Amino acid sequence: MSYTRLLYLIVFRTKESKQTIPEQFEKELYGYIMGIVNNKKSKLYRIGGMPDHIHLLVDIHPTFAVSDFMKELKEYSSKWLATNPNFPEFKGWAISFAAFTYNLKEKQVIIDIIMNQKEHHKKVSFEEEYREFLIENGIEIDERYFLKD
């Protein structure tokens, strides 16, 4: 028996960062994503975001690589969104995403960040937030590919 706790903050956005997730229907989408996460034997601690991006705090089952997990999450949710009349402007997810690992002791800090997205983005753009996450996590930004679809 192996014991793991793989706690990730994952940030992903809509194609071209278009605001295609209406606030009045975001909980419907979040519930659907929770179902995908559960079906992947993973645990969703918190989900939240804005009309153009989503944050997940998730413990991914060790049988899944993060890239495979996100490929399937985006694929299944895109198909669902395409048939849901509450998301008529949704055209897909951006190709890239960001995933950062955190210690269990930092869990509440990350939950608070996700819960305060709407207030946070009154002062800080998504681009600024995304850059900050990358820099804080020691990731070098290549401007040729930054937020490109």
Which tags fit this structure?
alpha+beta, four-stranded antiparallel sheet, Alpha-Beta Plaits, 149 residues, 4 strands, 5 helices
What is the first-to-last residue Cα distance? Answer: 41 Å
Instruction: Describe the strand arrangement of the main beta sheet, using strand numbers.
Output: 2-3-1-4
What is the CATH topology assignment?
Alpha-Beta Plaits
The tally of beta strands, per DSSP, is: 4
Shape: globular
CATH class descriptor: Alpha Beta
How many domains, in number, for the residues? 1
Structural class: alpha+beta
Unreliable segments of 5+ consecutive residues: none
User: CATH superfamily name?
Assistant: Transposase IS200-like
Order of helices and strands: EHEEHEHHH
The Cα radius of gyration reads: 15 Å
Indicate the CATH architecture.
2-Layer Sandwich
Largest sheet: 4 strands, antiparallel
Share of residues in strands: 15-25%
Q: Quote the average pLDDT.
A: 95
Specify the number of helices.
Answer: 5
Roughly what percent helix?
A: 25-40%
Would you kindly provide a written description of the structure presented here, covering whatever features stand out?
The protein is α+β, with helices and mostly antiparallel strands. It has a single domain, classed as Alpha-Beta Plaits, CATH 3.30.70.1290. It contains five helices and four strands; from the N terminus they run E-H-E-E-H-E-H-H-H. The chain has helices at residues 26-39, 66-83, 107-115, 117-120, 126-136, and strands spanning 7-14, 43-50, 53-59, 93-101. It has a four-stranded antiparallel sheet with strand order 2-3-1-4, sandwiched between helices. A hairpin with a 2-residue loop joins strand 2 and strand 3. Helix 1 (26-39) crosses helix 2. It is globular, with a radius of gyration of 15 Å. The model has no long low-confidence stretch (mean pLDDT 95).
